[in-house]
């Protein structure tokens, strides 16, 4: 049974472990610095479907296929899937996972969705509600651009602080096990809003959420940056990462050399024209379920914090002049 | 600790109970047959805010306020809120609940969202992950019309099978307790898709999901309609309810006299111009957290099934010619 420690953190007891993981990306992501880590990519941005939205559904379907294959289980062994994406009404998830015929809980936390799903899933497994659970999230550059910003055909200019929505999906399958990477602690985030209104600078809106959740976790557990190999956020990008360093520096903590942002890992920001870095529910999800898992299994990392952040705006709220509330959920992943 | 029974059903052990509940509706809902059951209504469709979307956020804020007051607890006693709505990126929830400063998990299941939230929340409480949890969902006629269909100013005709999105929010607060109505079992739904493509006939799309989840629950528990006082679906409306009777009649089961649909309870469909009935995440949520709770506390109902159904379409998927996948989540609520 997990135990609550401090105000916001849950410590697991029975090793909810990654028994399977999978990742699928687009060509641009495959061309990036960690492109070879992913299970599959496709030169066709539509992934053989008729629309960008259906391509995003395909990404989810394929990511879960790879995770099932690694876990060596069948779909009907999974008790419940937590899935989410950036599309209105989560259609990336509902259409993408329908053929697996597994009970489905859609969740929403923008780019933090993988963290939210892993948190819910691991605690429900740790305390015996579920035996096996899956978490799947995705994003697609083209479906996100036309939903949040402009049709691609318009060819709009992007600001220096803007981020590039990653075409990717990641899937994790969790079960209590031993010998595999496992989730040892979870901190669910609260909504932060410091009044940032620029929808092209989401890193700035999300940095306070990352700071707030990481600080709550440190306070609750009495640990600090020196206790972890690395803190992965996703996706603050260049602008948001620098703001995160500034926020921690006020507490006299320098996290710069213990921090990687998935938005900055996905692309080479110098020559891939992504400005401040990658973003999207699929960015940190695909990196966790490829590069990070691979490095935990080969012993490079033994104890990390995975802290995806989400900007909870919609085009409607932005047009109505509202600020961008943000949230970050944290999972502590270990491998003995 | 809850136990899984059969393939899809979880039986609780520690009485995750409704220690608080609240409901807020618009004027049209207040004028309906059960209008006096709700905690609060407002003549102003904008609830004192500048937009329909912010009005929906206000509905969530107020519903939770009433639930907190009945539970006689403070916001920071709540470990985690599950919240959802119909608006893109769940902005009804994120903006509505921000000031409570409680860890937030947004969930999405269209009109089934309250069932999904109660399922997750009750099982996490039953197995000791959470001590106190809240579930809040909402919908608003005006914000839904302009997002899913047409701007109100357009004055479009509505088809006879269409449903009227309810302006309402409901909030439940759960904790293990005794003497109060409690969730004794949960069945999470799978996505059903029988190929219905008419976005103005969501009852038809959702009826198979309701049938599938109720049947799974009956199969798993070895119970039948005679074991329950009433089965509440939400929101099949008139068209969907009749299709549900037809589906059960093929199994030689007549559920007609043991069934109420929240979409049909909310309005007088003969004179309130709502065609096939009400709908929306707030419809069944507000009825559960008013009429149904009140009738459980006064002894009218002792054992009911609450089975909200969701149509998982988006305007984008409909425009791309896709069908309407649907889902239904079931909670069995008892009062000794």
The CA-CA distance between the termini of chain A, in Å, is 20 Å
The CATH superfamily label of the largest domain in chain A reads Stage V sporulation protein AD
What is the helix tally of chain A?
10
Output the CATH class name of the largest domain in chain A: Alpha Beta
Based on Cα principal axes, name the global outline of chain A.
globular
CATH topology category name of the largest domain in chain A: Peroxisomal Thiolase, Chain A, domain 1
Q: Major β-sheet of chain A, in short?
A: 8 strands, mixed
Summed up, the domain count of chain A is 2
Structural class by helix and strand composition of chain A: alpha/beta
What percentage of amino acids of chain A are in beta strands? 15-25%
Q: Measured on Cα atoms, how large is the radius of gyration of chain A? A: 18 Å
Annotation, overall tally of beta strands of chain A:
16
CATH architecture of the largest domain in chain A: 3-Layer(aba) Sandwich
Rounded mean pLDDT of chain A is 96
Question: Uncertain regions of chain A: pLDDT < 50 for 5+ in a row?
Answer: none
Q: What series of H and E elements makes up the topology of chain A?
A: EEEHEHEHEHEHEEEHEHEHEHEHEE
Which two chains touch over the largest interface? A-B, 57 and 57 residues
Q: Name the quaternary structure.
A: homodimer
Percent helix among the residues of chain A? 25-40%
List strands and helices in order, with pairings:
The structure is a homodimer of 336-residue chains.
Chain A: E1 3-5, E2 9-11, E3 16-26, H1 27-30, E4 40-42, H2 52-71, E5 80-84, H3 91-97, E6 104-108, H4 113-126, E7 132-139, H5 141-148, E8 164-165, E9 168-176, E10 182-187, H6 202-221, E11 230-234, H7 237-249, E12 259-261, H8 262-266, E13 278-279, H9 281-297, E14 303-311, H10 315-319, E15 326-328, E16 330-334
Parallel strand pairs in A: 3-4, 5-6, 5-7, 8-13, 11-12, 11-14
Antiparallel strand pairs in A: 1-2, 2-10, 3-9, 7-9, 10-16, 14-15, 14-16
């Amino acid at each position: 049974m997990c135990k609550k420690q401090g105000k916001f953190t849950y410590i697991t007891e029975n090793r909810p472990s990654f028994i399977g993981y999978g990742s699928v990306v687009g060509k641009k992501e495959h061309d990036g610095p960690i492109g070879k880590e992913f299970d599959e990519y496709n030169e066709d941005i539509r992934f053989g479907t008729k629309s960008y939205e259906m391509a995003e559904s395909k990404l989810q379907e394929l990511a879960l296929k790879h995770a099932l294959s690694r876990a060596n289980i069948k779909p009907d062994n999974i008790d419940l899937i937590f899935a989410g994406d950036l599309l209105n009404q989560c259609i990336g998830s509902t259409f993408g996972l329908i053929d697996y015929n597994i009970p489905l809980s859609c969740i929403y936390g923008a780019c933090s969705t993988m963290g939210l799903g892993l948190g819910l899933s691991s605690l429900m497994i740790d305390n015996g509600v579920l035996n096996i659970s899956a978490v799947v999230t995705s994003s697609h550059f083209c479906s996100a651009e036309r939903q949040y910003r402009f049709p691609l055909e318009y060819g709009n200019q992007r600001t220096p602080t803007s981020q590039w929505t990653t075409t990717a999906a990641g899937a994790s399958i969790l079960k209590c096990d031993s010998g595999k990477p496992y989730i040892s602690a979870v901190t669910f985030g609260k909504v932060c809003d410091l009044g940032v209104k620029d929808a092209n600078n989401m890193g700035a809106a999300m940095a306070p959420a990352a700071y707030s959740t990481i600080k709550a976790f440190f306070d609750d557990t009495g640990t600090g940056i020196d206790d972890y190999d690395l803190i992965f956020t996703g996706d603050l990008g260049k602008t948001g990462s620098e703001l995160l360093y500034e926020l921690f520096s006020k507490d006299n903590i320098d996290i710069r050399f213990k921090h990687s942002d998935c938005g900055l890992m996905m692309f080479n920001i110098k020559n891939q024209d992504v400005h401040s870095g990658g973003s999207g529910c699929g960015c940190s999800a695909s990196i966790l379920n490829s590069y990070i898992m691979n490095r935990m299994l080969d012993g490079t990392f033994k104890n990390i914090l995975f802290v995806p952040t989400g900007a909870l705006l919609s085009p409607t709220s932005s047009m109505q002049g509202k600020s961008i509330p943000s949230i970050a959920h944290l999972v502590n992943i270990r491998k003995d």
